[in-house]
Write a structure and sequence with these properties.
There is one protein chain. Helix content is about 40%, strand content about 20%. About 5% of the residues have low confidence. The chain has 15 helices and 15 strands. It has about 425 residues and is α/β, with parallel strands linked by helices. Helix 1 runs antiparallel to helix 2, helix 6 packs antiparallel against helix 7 and helix 10 packs parallel to helix 14.
Length: about 425
């Protein structure tokens, strides 16, 4: 967050009060692009375009999706308190602010546009709960064992985020919905949100996520280019690296990412599925993989992406360290690559359970799309469990039968959900892109 995004969001509120909903959406998109540029100053965004409402409609028609676009607005006093403590000192871990309202736009493939305002003030003033707090509870270990309580949180989030616009969504589960989240909504498993009938969102809809409309356009252009120039699939598989050491400020010893107990089984299953060998262990260094991923169009990493501000490397991919580097592939490095792929999968995400901000997700997704990728399948948390291997196997098998990645993921989630009902075991992936 920065002062610019606060100004843009205040302007959105003014425009909404004036019933100028479409212009407010244009400002929301400008706000996201400004935030990207401020938070990722080393990444070149010059070839991304700005959008007016008509151009948004034309893009959605071309992509053939239903867009659900979120903008989260805050109480100014809470904002400036957070801004002051942006680098939270010890003892201030609970200083995060409460949204006062959410703006939700829906653009249908026909171009029809709808907007809803969701007032959250009573929610946190009377019930002492925040939208961010609910998402944080989903990620805290003490709240994960009680399935009933976990599902209640998912139901509450559905009421706030989906129910207000449910009437505008497609009824055919094969039709794709593209969600454009903001802030901590990046770390929310939308697929697991539960409606009043007890159904998960993924049961009724195929979902894709995108950070902004500018990136949706770029991913769309990447897809069109690949359709014209790529004739067959080629694969890169990497798994189970020797985890890097990350030096943290004011710490005497480095932090070591935990080894993936199920990592070897996962990468071996994927390798057998494609009848290919994979790079594993200490061989999975940055120098080893950089040239190889440029030649492949489906990339699979059985490792972590860093989804919190761990050691100052938000969004980095954990590789094996070498004499030349510490074993982290950063978003800034990814964005400079020239990739030709349709899909990259990073099958585990590492973050502190209390961390709910989504800037790391934004960075890694943005970097891969700028580099030339169409889709990024990203784990929102670590799931070192046999369900992870099963889900990925189902996903890739479905993808071989149907090149629609959102539909392949939906079917994989529904299959794993039957065997492992807890959302922690099937809802942890978000598919980003086109």
């Amino acid at each position: 967050m920065n002062i610019y995004s606060d100004i843009y969001r205040s302007f959105q509120r003014v425009l909404m009060n004036q019933k100028r909903c479409n212009i407010a959406l244009e400002i929301a998109e400008q706000s996201k692009m400004k935030t990207f540029q401020e938070s990722c100053s080393l990444i070149n965004y010059s070839h991304l375009t700005t959008f007016n409402h008509h151009k948004m409609q034309e893009l959605i028609k071309g992509v053939k999706t239903t867009l659900v676009y979120y903008s989260v607005l805050y109480d100014e006093n809470q904002f400036y308190r957070f801004h002051r403590f942006h680098r939270l000192p010890k003892g201030e871990n609970n200083v995060y602010f409460y949204p006062t309202e959410i703006l939700i736009w829906v653009i249908k493939p026909t171009g029809e546009t709808y907007c809803e305002q969701v007032d959250l003030t009573h929610f946190w003033q009377e019930e002492m709960l925040s939208l961010g707090g609910l998402i944080r509870q989903l990620n805290e270990e003490k709240n994960q064992e009680d399935l009933e309580e976990y599902q209640q949180n998912l139901s509450n989030l559905y009421k706030l985020l989906i129910k207000p616009i449910a009437q505008y969504l497609p009824t055919n589960p094969e039709e794709i919905i593209t969600i454009c989240p903001q802030d901590f909504l990046y770390l929310l498993p939308f697929s697991a949100l539960i409606n009043e009938r007890g159904e998960s969102l993924i049961e009724n809809h195929s979902l894709i996520t995108i950070p902004s409309l500018s990136l949706l356009e770029l991913a769309y252009n990447n897809q069109l280019y690949h359709q014209e120039n790529l004739t067959k699939s080629s694969y890169f598989l990497m798994g189970n690296p020797s985890m890097p050491h990350i030096w943290l400020a004011e710490e005497k010893y480095p932090f070591i990412l935990p080894n993936l107990i199920e990592g070897e089984a996962e990468i071996n299953t994927i390798s057998a599925l494609f009848n290919l060998t994979s790079i594993q262990g200490s061989y999975a260094t940055k120098n080893q993989i950089i040239e190889q991923i440029k030649r492949a169009n489906i990339l699979h990493f059985t490792t972590y992406s860093l989804l919190s501000e761990l050691g100052g490397f938000p969004g980095a991919i954990a590789l094996s360290p070498s004499m030349e580097d510490q074993g982290l592939l950063t978003p800034e490095e990814v964005a400079k690559l020239k990739l030709k792929g349709s899909l990259v999968t990073i099958s585990h995400g590492y973050r502190k359970s209390s961390y709910i901000w989504g800037n790391s997700v934004e960075k890694i997704v943005t970097a891969f799309i700028l580099a030339g990728m169409e889709n990024i399948l990203l784990a929102l948390w670590q799931n070192d469990h046999p369900a992870n291997t099963l889900l990925l196997k189902e996903f890739y098998q479905n993808l071989q039968q149907n090149d629609q990645k959102a539909k392949a993921l939906r079917q994989a989630m529904l299959t794993v959900k039957k065997a492992y009902p807890h959302p922690l075991n099937w809802a942890y992936f978000s598919l980003f892109g086109i």
